[in-house]
Design brief:
Layout: E1 5-9, H1 18-27, E2 32-36, H2 46-58, E3 62-71, H3 78-92, E4 96-100, H4 111-128, E5 134-137, H5 148-158, E6 163-167, H6 175-185, E7 189-194, E8 196-197, E9 202-203, H7 209-222, E10 229-232, H8 243-253
Parallel strand pairs: 1-2, 1-10, 2-3, 3-4, 4-5, 5-6, 6-7, 7-10
Antiparallel strand pairs: 8-9
């Protein structure tokens, strides 16, 4: 069985430099970083990607993913736009590139718009496949993956072996729904974004320990041989000093 990796999403601390983020991750005893494409490794900046990869590896850490902000349906030339994303993901040595599934809620897509989004996503998967990259969509509100039936429909329409999903609890839904969503998306699951929020507030991960234990049990019982990256995303107070506490709770969940 491959060991799960525990890490951090770099956009948790957009104001920090890559060096500062790496130092914080090492101090917290985590193993991997999802590097974001908005600040730390901008799409198309291959020099930044190579530099961040070198810094990450020199610190004994691993690149979990390239967190791009590419959105389906947002560009007149998808292949040209994706080239910068793909180049950075490869330069980073990322196994996964994260995308967003559109620019509006799933209920607002016409059949034609859905078909176009799925076709674009399949193209991106085909472009990424020769490099061994997975194209993975985030469960995010106001996109085609804002609920799990729509996310499943998208995965089935893409129909590519290197297409997959992130999962994170929907802060607008209850635990029962989130457990149901996780079970449904397991066949496509790569990484997990970890936080404890509700519609109004962020909380220390400790307050959601039992809830997260139930999510991990679902993954362990149904995918015991598959490795996933579990990545802390944002601190309850946006303070880097809080990372060691949140990391300790994350590590406790895997004891």
């Amino acid at each position: 069985m491959q060991q799960n990796r525990l890490g951090l999403v770099s956009v948790s601390f957009r104001s920090l430099t890559p060096e500062e983020i790496i130092q914080a991750v090492c101090a917290a005893g985590l193993q991997a970083i999802e590097w974001g494409g908005d600040v730390h490794v901008p799409a198309g900046d291959l020099s930044a990607a190579r530099r961040v990869r070198a810094l990450t590896e020199e610190a004994g850490l691993e690149v979990a993913a390239y967190g791009s902000y590419y959105r389906l349906g947002a560009y007149p030339d998808a292949q040209k736009e994706f080239a910068g994303v793909l180049g950075c993901a490869c330069a980073l040595g990322a196994p996964v590139v994260r995308l967003w599934a559109g620019q509006k809620g799933s209920g607002l897509f016409s059949q034609e718009e859905f078909a176009s989004a799925a076709q674009e996503a399949a193209l991106l998967c085909d472009l990424a496949a020769p490099y061994g990259l997975k194209v993975v969509f985030e469960c995010h509100n106001d996109t085609l993956t804002d609920n799990y039936p729509s996310a499943l429909r998208l995965m089935q329409a893409i129909n590519r072996p290197n297409a997959g999903m992130y999962w994170q609890p929907n802060q607008l839904r209850d635990k029962s729904y989130n457990q149901e969503a996780l079970r449904a998306l397991l066949p496509y699951l790569y990484n997990v974004h970890v936080f404890q929020w509700d519609a109004a507030n962020r909380y220390p991960l400790e307050q959601g320990r039992e809830e997260w234990q139930s999510y991990l049990q679902i993954i362990r019982s149904e995918q015991p041989q598959r490795r996933h990256d579990f990545l802390l995303e944002f601190m309850p107070d946006d303070n880097p000093a809080t990372l060691p506490r949140e990391a300790d709770t994350l590590k406790y969940l895997f004891q």
